[in-house]
Design a protein that fits this description.
Pfam families: ERO1. This protein is mainly alpha-helical and 462 residues long. It has one domain. Bound molecules: 2-acetamido-2-deoxy-beta-D-glucopyranose (NAG) (3 copies).
Length: 462
Amino acid sequence: MAAGGAGGIPLLLLLVLVVPGVLPQGAAERRCFCQVTGYLDDCTCDVETIDAFNNYKLFPRLNQLLESDYFRYYKVNLKKPCPFWDDNSHCGMRDCAVQPCPSDEVPDGIRSGSYKYSEEANNRDGECEEAERLGAVDDSLSTETREAVLQWTRHDDSSESFCEADDIYSPDAEYVDLLLNPERYTGYKGPDAWKIWNSIYEENCFKPQNVKRPLASGRGDDGGHTFYKWLKGVCVEKRAFYRLISGLHASINIHLSARYLLQDTWSEKRWGPNVTEFQQRFDEVLTRGEGPRRLKNLYFLYLIELRALSKVLPFFERPGFRLYTGNESQDVEMKDLLLEILHLAKSFPLHFDENSFFAGNKKEAAKLKEEFRLHFKNISKIMDCVGCFKCRLWGKLQTQGLGTALKILFSENLIEKMPESGPSYGFQLTRQEIVALFNAFGRVSTSVKELENFRNILQNMR
Ligand SMILES: *[C@@H]1O[C@H](CO)[C@@H](O)[C@H](O)[C@H]1NC(C)=O
Ligand SMILES: *[C@@H]1O[C@H](CO)[C@@H](O)[C@H](O)[C@H]1NC(C)=O
Ligand SMILES: *[C@@H]1O[C@H](CO)[C@@H](O)[C@H](O)[C@H]1NC(C)=O
């Protein structure tokens, strides 16, 4: 997904009115970050604590985990047609291309693992197909595991899922090596990218049509006044939904600014930070106050995903869970690292107050969960409309990751009740969900880290 720049038209207009060079450069750092300090809304956490925790503790470990075989291969169907409108494909653009892996490069364990090591939660899409394969369950599986396998094929997952998952058995679904296809600037922006974000915000974020988003084009733009009044009035969960989407948008735009195509000649391609691009998206003046709010939403997204990681620890801690790739020593090593990361997430002192979140009375909470799920599911379908393969890949992965985080947060009771061994009746994660969850969090964690870099660059511009 890419580069929408909330409200492309007014941004252009603004640039005409306020040329960056005319602004006192000394204030540049302050203008992006002045409001992004201290306490965050809707939680009891401050930005500085997150920065220190993420940049020095979590980020390095997470990065190491994501380089492992288990986490680098993600199966995705990039050929699904857009269900909502005729997409105007940019997939021919060179920097948008995604290189799928020849399947012999994908470790055997990952390719076959989906039905061999099922208790460890691999895929359960296509239940009939799966059940057929399960008829031939490998005899080396323990009785316990085999029972678990049968258990979860019976369990209907569809009511729990927050995303429209790709059918990974479709001939169009291919493994992609995420390390070889990094998320970075692709040139996909302008009206097409804007359309994606616009339909997400306008049609899928609980917002009534008559409330205009800040910086939206056309009449009724009152500098976000009506919008923020509306946002303040809705329940904390719906506000959270909007903030998560905005945080995701901010995170993606930080990556595109941090890995901008700076030099593109026949001899060299160089990606690196582009401060101008960053300022156009996050500078307080250039964005009429929206930039710092977007950055705060990024931290909010970070906290939600961190919370989900800390909650899902019991699922991964079970002795039966394995990160199965076929390389035994690596699998053990990576599981240890995974658990270290989850314990670290759990140790974070300032998780937001969950009592105010996804709580409320039971009936209301169930209704809200259902609304959340349907909205989010629709957003995951919109990802098939992203007209650039690279952006579509990362868009799908990040929405699936966030969807998985939400599924975890809404399944707290089931996770707590999970037995140490044997079938985990109510709660399962597929390998795809696991890979998406950690890679999506890796993206947000990288964004927080990149902010430090931009802050330093802006400081030195004085
Ligand atoms: C899903 O998203 C599309 C595209 O934005 C929109 O037209 C449609 O109304 C949405 N459907 C639901 C059920 O929210
Ligand atoms: C940085 O981004 C701006 C647009 O935001 C672009 O005009 C400029 O050429 C970019 N700088 C480099 C060095 O690519
Ligand atoms: C298994 O992984 C380890 C690294 O964790 C590596 O050193 C070793 O060569 C791998 N073994 C095989 C058979 O690929």
